[in-house]
Predict the 3D structure of the following.
Amino acid sequence: MPIGLAGKTAIVTGAGRGIGKAVAEVFAREGARVLVVNRSAQAGQAATDGIVAEGFEASFLQADVRRKADMERMAEVCIERYGRIDILCLNAGIYPNALIADMSEAMWDDVMDTNLKGVFFAVQACLPQMKSQRAGRLLVVSSITGPRVGLPDVSCYMASKGGVNAFVRGAALELAPYGITANTVSPGSILTEGIAQARGDEAVKEFSRVIPTGHLGDPEDVAYALLYLASDQARFVTGHDIVLDGGQILPERPLAL
């Protein structure tokens, strides 16, 4: 049986660009009706328009995952437009750089509010509908940075992603009796628009040197892993994390590539 999402309704946050945009596009192409959720109206609407132009079903909602009221409205709008919530894919996140000694309380709070509390708000808002359906898929985009490996100037980000993975494992246990599964994916280095613009071609080549497959991942690589977890074929998978990194975290010592 081919993997698909025909007849399903999906919410994707942070869907205006990068991984979230790719997820929204792949889910729509595979038959889902997609609620594209993004803080930036311009980027979110553009992503939605692109999906609709391809002949697939999607609509846009401007919302900020840091605001509980916005997440409650998100759930309401999805039910109003599509009648149910089958898949909740939480991708919105931020990645500021700062050493611990230089990090402000405001930065810490913004990262935690966006990357971790936003997950809590969204899940809590969508749970009543999913529970009433006795079915659902909770998917969160985490990272290898934090749960698996580390860098010296992103400890706040790392803490947020470690928290996300722990939260989802707990959610998997709590929600299993309702037919709801909960999983994370942890990308490594993914060639998003932001990476390409901020780092440049030479930096991308340097990143590629430490990845055994020899190249950065594409946002669609993450999207297709999430497609599986969102599908009926993944009904027996819950509380797990799929690493998507081209083997980046595997070597015991630096590879001579």
